User: What shape does this take?
Amino acid sequence: MNLYKNIVILTGAGISAESGVKTFRDNNGLWEEHRMEDVATPEAFMRDPHLVHRFYNLRRAQMSDVTPNLAHSALALLEANHRGSVTVVTQNVDDLHERGGSKDVIHMHGELGNVRCGHCAEVVQWHGDCDTKTTCPTCAAGGAMRPDIVWFGEMPFHMDRIYGLLAGADLFVSIGTSGTVYPAAGFVAEINQIGRAHTLEINMEPSVGASQFAETRHGPAGELVPVFVEEILRD
Ligand code: BV8
Assistant: This one.
């Protein structure tokens, strides 16, 4: 009889690192080349839309060069075989969870594969470059398209659904996140407040919030996540 019914898994850039996707804060991370304020805020987009479009166009183009790793496929295996529910809440904007086979994925910080019209708010799938000349396929407004990404100071997506999932979880696992960005970094405190779930952190090194987890395992996600999944499915 499996111990856990409702499993919520939070992931961050660290789960995509072994696929070759740069993380944000590791030594050669994304922010090293750019100050966060220069590329991931609405003010930055107003100030220099070309720089911001270039930053996201580069990352969107990189998506076709990377493939899911063993951690992504292990989470898909868990979702397919676990008798209860398994939901991935990701801070990542890549599509590696979906390409790894996960079905129930919530992108709280948006997706590189979508752009949004600042004029009519339509969200469209986008795989090429987007720039200040791109017109909206829905309302034909020119120069109003932006990455459908949650920037600093903007409200993350699907928060009601996420807090509902946290309230019903009996296992909360955080994988590959430094625990520096809110509200995601606050989910473990939310879970501990409710007091029903076991909490596990799987990360290369202790995150900022490591002490809030009942259990921590440190090392590469590609190694540790398959072991964790195997344990859960064996129960
Ligand atoms: C909000 C999209 C409220 C962009 C991202 C002052 C001013 C303004 C805001 C704030 C402020 N103080 C606090 C805030 C809130 C702010 C915030 O938290 N700031 C931080 C910096 C203090 N948060 C926000 O602004 C959020 N919105 O609060 O709105 C609100 C309320 C009402 C009305 C309106 C608004 C929005 C935050 C979202 C920002 N967007 N991403 C993009 O991707 O380009 S955040 C960005 O950081 C990514 O999404 C990323 O996922 C996220 C967190 O980073 P991590 O994923 O953790 O990545 P990181 O590199 O840090 O860590 C990787 C980890 O993996 C490391 O620990 C490493 O050891 C590990 N690792 C590496 N390799 C491996 C590994 N682990 C395992 N295996 C490996 N192989």
Observations:
- The pocket of BV8 is lined by residues 12-14, 17-18, 23-26, 29, 40, 91-93, 109, 149-156, 176-178, 180-183, 203-205, 207, 220-221 (CB under 6 Å).
- The chain is about 35% helix and 20% strand.
